[in-house]
Design a protein that fits this description.
CATH architecture of the largest domain: 2-Layer Sandwich
Strand content: 15-25%
Helix content: 25-40%
Radius of gyration: 20 Å
Organism: Maritimibacter harenae
Shape: elongated
Distance between the termini: 14 Å
Number of domains: 2
Largest sheet: 4 strands, antiparallel
InterPro entries: ArsR-like_HTH, AsnC-type_HTH_dom, Dimeric_a/b-barrel, Tscrpt_reg_AsnC-like, Tscrpt_reg_AsnC/Lrp_C, WH-like_DNA-bd_sf, WH_DNA-bd_sf
Number of strands: 4
CATH topology of the largest domain: Alpha-Beta Plaits
Protein name: Winged helix-turn-helix transcriptional regulator
CATH superfamily of the largest domain: Lrp/AsnC effector binding domain/regulation of amino acid metabolism (RAM) domain
Keywords: DNA-binding, Transcription, Transcription regulation
GO molecular function: sequence-specific DNA binding
Order of helices and strands: HHHEHEEHE
Length: 154
């Protein structure tokens, strides 16, 4: 099902997801709209949930978290209660940036940041291994980030 947005909305969204702090006046100029029309569209896009939130994306390396790992988690079962308990608890681990329920060999894949491999070992042992229902884990370390974006194709 295609979202109910037009080409102008797409242009606005494209600019905002790359420059979330842009002023309304500058946004209106970039998409060739009046400031008031642009503001109304942005408000509607927010209200309808196309714009979820505005955030600052921090540099993990500058913040002292240069190590990134992807952790495949296998649970002991698939009962709704177990999945819900796991999801509730994993959301409380600050080093976990993303958690995805998977179809395939793993039940979940986590994106985890750490200060170094010793720090990752601590997170793995003290936090991830203690999550509800964890039966097995397989970790892979990112050697280098080749490409990264938060921008969706609009």
């Amino acid at each position: 099902m295609e979202p109910q947005i037009d080409e102008m909305d797409r242009r606005i969204l494209s600019v905002l997801q790359r420059a979330g702090r842009i002023s309304n006046a500058d946004l209106a100029e970039r998409v060739h709209l009046s400031a008031s029309a642009c503001h109304r569209r942005v408000q509607r896009l927010e209200k309808e949930g196309f714009l979820r939130e505005y955030v600052a994306l921090l540099n993990a390396r500058q913040m002292g978290f240069p190590t990134m790992a992807f952790v495949e988690i296998s649970l002991a079962g698939q009962a709704d209660e177990l999945l819900e308990a796991f999801e509730r608890e994993v959301a409380l681990v600050p080093e976990v940036l993303e958690c995805h329920l998977m179809a395939g060999t793993a039940d979940y894949i986590l994106k985890v940041v750490a200060r170094d491999t010793d720090d990752f070992a601590r997170v793995h042992r003290q936090k991830l291994a203690r999550l509800p229902g964890v039966q097995g884990m397989q970790s892979s370390f990112a050697l280098r980030t080749v490409f990264k974006t938060t921008a969706l194709p609009v």
